[in-house]
Amino acid sequence: MTTITICPSILSADFAFLADQISQAEAAGADWFHVDVMDGHFVPNLTMGPFIVETLRRLTSLPIDVHLMVENPDVMIPWYAAAGANRISVQIETCPHIFRTVESIRALGCNPGVVLNPGTPAATLEEVLPLVDLVLVMTVNPGYSGQQFIPRILPKIKKVSDLISTTASQAMIQVDGGIDPTTLPLCYQAGAKVFVAATSVFKHPNGIAAGIAALRSAI
Ligand code: DX5
Ligand code: ZN
Q1: What CATH number is associated with residue 129?
Q2: Is 133 annotated in the active site?
Q3: Which of 11, 30, 180, 211 is the most exposed place for a label (fewest CB within 10 A)?
Q4: Which residues surround ligand 2, an ion (CB under 5 A)?
């Protein structure tokens, strides 16, 4: 059986009923929860502080996967680790000292990941790949949920997959943005195994469980 990891992004959850939404997603077989942290500078939107991760930590024992879309990740990494994150990924565009940043995430007991914006080439990863557990290839321009998948990213996923094989890296490939039952198999074929989804889970017309089931059965 094919194993994929489904990570509902709580960006599209109904925060008036967060506890209920999390327990529905968990019961439906979510693997990790994805938290989108946006600072209003690196991306044009302002979202979740560490307080949200603290709250989520009380609602689930599943891994919490924090995606930092911020200009100064080095300052914020300890806040999110202390709040209960299990995995922390940083946008490579924001990290002039990526080795130090990745090592600091691991030293805090979390799994480090690096994220590539649509315009950032796969080759940027070459030196850091052996040090990370996850590469997130953005399939939209980060900032909002509900955007359209960018198909021209697919060859880059394949390039990242090839680079991982040639650098003795153990990193998994995650994709994020416009992931639904149509786009998921395309990313899977290119080498992605971990799928972030906000709209197609939390806004599915038949509910959260139906959204997760549709993603799971797409391959
Ligand atoms: C976009 C975020 C995504 C977003 C995905 O900047 O990083 O995680 O929540 O939303 P959908 O799945 O609706 O494209
Ligand atoms: Zn994200």
Answers
A1: 3.20.20.70
A2: no
A3: 180
A4: 36, 67, 176
Query: Looking at 31, 65, 133, 176, which residue is catalytic?
Result: 176
Q: Is 176 a catalytic residue?
A: yes
pTM: 0.98
Distance (Å, whole) CA 140 – CA 217 = 23
Burial readout 189-211 (b: 16 or more C-beta within 10 A, e: otherwise): ebbbbbbbbbbbbbbbeeebbeb
In angstroms, the CA 179 to CA 85 distance is 23
Tens of pLDDT, residue by residue, the chain (219 residues): 679 999 999 999 999 999 999 999 999 999 999 999 999 999 999 999 999 999 999 999 999 999 999 999 999 999 999 999 999 999 999 999 999 999 999 999 999 999 999 999 999 999 999 999 999 999 999 999 999 999 999 999 999 999 999 998 999 999 999 999 999 999 999 999 999 999 999 999 999 999 999 999 999
Minimum-distance ligand 1 atom for the alpha carbon of 11: 9
Q: For residue 69, what are the domain limits?
A: 5-216
What's the total number of domains in the chain? Answer: 1
